[in-house]
Design a protein that fits this description.
Chain lengths: 327, 165
């Protein structure tokens, strides 16, 4: 790990001011940042430790929604009674993410800032080309081993998959991220790689995530997170789906539907085409399976990741049908 | 490189230390304090061999900067037994052969202590396996580990009942 200076922020303003300086990174749980510093991807000059700031780990849930402070731990949120009951997909996504140890360390703000697990991005010692790490250097993944790479939202510059579970559930339910002066939809916080894959988040120097807000909705209340992976636990998604559903009074006709995909795209992927195709329809297995194919419209594979195009619609359909059974 | 002063309570003993900000809690325990029971496996948060309890919660000490944990209360495997008397979790790991080579065992035991205090697993082997998925055992002693956790929970619940009575 390269040498860096360490500064413990005594206030939010001090943290923001320090974070505006080039070469400065914020340290919260450290589960991504320390890992990346060890593999030579993150090379901060200064770390600003925000873990000692008070009051940023609150979880408030009321009729309007949930507000979760940036320093709330993943494990704490997953186990919060009101999050479990009103936003089951959020709790389930967190339970299925990482390990118990990491959930005890990692914060929700840091979770949104986690970087891709693309081995080429994380292996500067072996792979010099990575447009995400060194703009203009090329992409080692294209033409390489692609089993874990994205099939949606890719560009000629980058096919790295967004690995997170929580943010997939957040975009399904129109959550916003508060950055101090401004707030953004989580969907807009994550950027497509395009020609600038080095820029993954719409956060600016001097900004810091202070909280995440999830509005209440009937669909969020009846929701689930289904994650399919190579290993049953402590593994990133081969494909996952955050789904929420609201029925009309007849209990069969879909009034509102939310669908987002994880493990298949370069960012948390809202599948609006599936939502629109099923709104107003009666929930029937065949209808759901046909509409779920729309989740991967425009998908492009790079050989070994082709299975994701087959798998993702099945995960979506299974999640929707599972919620239907509870009607 | 500037060393920074921190205070840590480790296994009940208070330590005042000067640390390089890059030093992880794991390296501090092993290299500075000779508490080598906590193991360095992957050093990337993937294997769980470095698991310790910080303020009662299990964490990967390889991903924790010591300087950031100023003021914390740390429990390592060396602080688990009471003198010569093994903790029920330790005794159960021995009774059920919850290890083979033993390298991952301190992490498995610390993670089990965390799991039991979180109260999530109950007596369901499937939930124990899920709750301990952050601890890899390359000898694959998982069968014995799950049996050990089940028995340790039973023993601890019994002694809780005795204490309450």
């Amino acid at each position: 790990m390269r040498d860096f200076s360490y500064f413990r922020a005594s206030s939010l303003d001090a943290a923001r001011q320090a974070a505006a300086l080039p070469g400065t990174m914020l340290l919260a749980g450290g589960t991504t940042l320390i890992d990346l510093a060890k593999c030579g991807v993150a090379e901060p000059d200064t770390l600003v430790d925000i873990t000692h700031l008070k009051g940023l780990d609150r979880i408030d849930v009321n009729e309007r929604g949930a507000t979760i402070g940036a320093l709330a731990k993943m494990g704490h949120i997953a186990d919060h009674a009101d999050i479990k009951s009103r936003f089951p997909a959020i709790s389930e996504a967190l339970w299925q993410a990482a390990s118990a140890q990491i959930r005890n360390m990692a914060t929700i703000g840091g979770n949104l800032m986690q970087r891709t697990r693309c081995p080429y991005f994380r292996g500067p010692a072996n792979f010099s080309a990575c447009n995400k790490r060194e703009p203009g250097s090329g992409c080692s993944a294209i033409g390489g081993v692609t089993r874990g790479h994205a099939v949606l939202g890719t560009s000629e510059a980058c096919i790295a998959m967004y690995p997170g579970d929580l943010a997939t559930a957040l975009v399904a339910f129109d959550a916003t991220v508060h950055l101090g002066e401004r707030k953004l939809l989580v969907d807009d916080f994550f950027l497509l790689p395009g020609s600038t894959p080095d820029r993954e988040h719409a956060i600016e120097p001097g900004e810091m995530i202070t909280s995440i807000e999830i509005p209440s909705s009937a669909a969020a209340h009846r929701s689930t997170y289904l994650k399919i992976r190579d290993r049953q636990s402590y593994e990133f998604a081969a494909a996952s789906a955050a789904v929420g559903i609201e029925f009309e009074a007849d209990g069969r006709t879909i009034r509102d539907l939310r669908v987002a995909l994880g493990g298949v795209a370069t960012k948390p992927w809202r599948a609006r085409a599936v939502e629109e195709a099923l709104k107003g329809k009666v929930l029937e297995p065949e209808t759901v399976r046909a509409a779920s194919r729309l989740a991967v419209e425009g998908a492009v594979d790079h050989g070994a990741n082709h299975y994701k195009i087959e798998l993702a619609p099945r995960v979506v359909a299974r999640a929707i049908l599972k919620l239907g059974e509870t009607a | 490189m500037t060393s920074l002063p921190i205070t840590l309570t480790i296994n009940g003993h208070r330590h005042e230390l000067e640390v390089d900000p890059r030093v992880t809690l794991l390296d501090l325990l092993r290299e500075r304090l000779d508490l080598t029971g906590t193991k360095k496996g992957c050093d990337r948060g993937q294997c769980g061999a470095c698991t310790v309890l910080v303020d009662g919660k299990r964490i990967n000490s390889c991903l924790a900067l010591a300087v950031s944990h100023d003021g914390a209360n740390v429990l390592t495997i060396e602080g688990v037994a009471r003198g010569e008397e093994l903790h029920p979790v330790q005794a159960a790991f021995i009774a059920h052969d919850g290890f083979q080579c033993g390298f991952c065992t301190p992490g498995q035991i610390m993670s089990t202590l965390g799991l039991i205090s979180e109260g999530q697993a109950g007596d369901d082997p499937e939930r124990i396996r899920e709750g301990l998925s952050g601890n890899i055992c390359r000898c694959a002693a998982y069968g014995g580990i799950v049996e050990a956790v089940l028995e340790a929970q039973e023993q601890l619940a019994k002694s809780d009942r005795r204490t309450a009575a």
